[in-house]
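Example with several molecule types.
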Amino acid sequence: MNALLKQSLAGLRILLVLTVLTGVLYPLGVWAVSRLPGLQANAEGSVVEVDGRAVGSDLIGIDPVAEDPARDPWFHTRPSAVALDLDGDGSADNLGPADGSISMGSNKGAFDEDLVAAVEDRRATIADREDVEPSQVPPDAVTASASGLDPHISPAYAELQVPRVARVTGLSEDRVRALVEENTDGRGLGVLGEPGVNVLKLNLAVTAAG
Amino acid sequence: MAGLLQVGVLLAALAAVHKPLGDYMARVFTSTRHLAVERVVYRAVRVDPDREQHWKTYAAGVLGFSFVSIVLLYLIQRLQSVLPFDFGRGPVEPGIAFNTAISFVANTNWQSYVPETVMGHTVQMLGLTVQNFLSAAVGLSVAMALVRGFVRSRTDRLGNFWVDLTRGTVRILLPMAFLFAVVLVGLGVVQSLRSGVDITSVDGRSNHIALAPAASQEVIKELGTNGGGIFNANSAHPFENPNGWTNLIEIFLLLVIPVSLTRTFGTLVGNRRQGYALLSVMTVLWGAMLAVIWWAEAHPNGPAALLAGAGTEGKEVRFGIAGSALFANSTTGTSTGAVNSMHDSYSGLGGGGTMLNMLFGEMTPGGVGTGLYSMLVMAIIAMFLAGLMVGRTPEYLGKKLGRREVTAAAVTILAMPTVLLLGAGIAILLPGTSGYLANSGPHGWSEVLYAYTSASNNNGSAFAGITVTSPWFQSSLGLCMLFGRLIPILAVLCLAGSLAAQKKVPSTSGTLPTTGALFPTLLTGTVVLVAALTFIPALALGPIAEALA
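Resulting structure tokens for the full complex:
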């Protein structure tokens, strides 16, 4: 018992010293290095500014809401498990903007009845919005991402939205398609990860072009 | 195809690094010289670094250090409101603080809290980041003590715990963490002391995006096989893991030390093929489980996934199926528990695969240090079984495996299933448990089983639909983490002490060689058999039922 007490006291002393090293000097050292030009913008969240106003982050997907749903000019993100409750039914909306201050997946398994209902509802809503058959809606469009803040959509989901965005913004479909192409992040080294279309950057590009 | 090449890039990187890193770690733990900064530490804490310890003193050091670490981490959380960068989040409530303190000290890093609203930056850096380093260094130290047990003979000295702890932190973890933290910031990971940034989106609506000092913690979270995210969505959050590059680097980081330690082991015992024998077992099981999980996620079953057309629920577009399965397999095969996709939304077979990785006892390739010592203990069990078959006293690496050694090995591998099955069994019998689950039926049981599996194996990932804020879950999972960590450590140190005291027996024509193809095959079979015999009934009621549905 005496040995345990003696070792605990030694342990406390070394814990305090190593806390200064790994809990103060290390994280603040990394913070200090990340003030370097070229790193600072990343370290502070890759914020995108338009006319000096922060409109979002390159890395965070928050779904834009159309003022008039019949004339919806936006490319839309994937569903989010941390979506706001804009329809006021007491739970996260099936489709709609995320709350960027938290992050979460739905954690529902494929046999869960609520998830089946949510997928069904999203498929119908999106098919209606894009004026296509429900079977044409790609998987990522109807399933919530892991973070709730996925900045990307699949190229297939972007393609599905091209005709509507072109119609509403008055741009040609080819022009919109070119913008989709420009805002698609490819695989690292050609093999790492999957290609995805960055929704915020694409919407900003469409706005700028229109 | 790109997915397979991605695995190839990962394996090539590990193959290139494991030799220099493994040899470097061997030098770190055998060198007689102390760095200047280490001398300062030893003087400040008044330990004599050149005095080696008996296994009981070493064990008392580990226990005492873990105890004061838990107390300090608990206090830091409870005192959050008087610390800077708390953003008004207030004191962490006692149940969460208790569970989190044990969790991070035990290298589990289970999150029963939403970091963005509960933990401020000071608690994250001063409390959680510290234990990300030190719990990994404790695992390394215990592994080195066990290796010394095999290497040395006729001694009761196993090294000095404070020296091992300090060297592991200062010479291995800190420099690698600093380097890769800066690399991650360069690739887009955030490192901010602000609580977040207010934005007005393209549609004119305002929103708030949370920020945190993520890069410094992200790196050690993977490198130390810890797993507790600074954001709730963990490595699925784009600020922790923004692209294919960071995803591969993070997977590399969580595998690199456990893999390289097999080289360290081979170097220290004077025969590198002994290390490669263990590595081949780890690689075969890791590869087989990757194939299972990847296939399962690429061929979804269950009505929601079939309706959607793919198993994309709970996965990020930038990682896809391949990048998610690769991460999931590596995080559960090590004791990390970080996630870049939500395992709760995996198919029955895919989610069951991640669970089975943990049920192997975290040794494919396992956590930092813990993976090596768990595999060595399993090697002792395998040699014992082989000895029984041929009727000889078993030996391993020139040490006789007598009653004391086999008992210690058995205690090590039985601790985890005992606390796991007791905990999960009681939890499912308690009235009201179903109210804490996100899913009903077999998947609900899987959530409970996964929680106790993850806690008892110090993994920390979750079928996160389960709500674990009730006093029962907070306390029972806390105890599972504590016992799942400390009982094996004590048994391993006892084993190390008894091995070190023996003299080496020369190998004869009757000795089973542990470097050819036979031994790894036997060892693989033992790992699978022990897990299967212990857990098939529990798995049949959850993931297996779902996979066959």
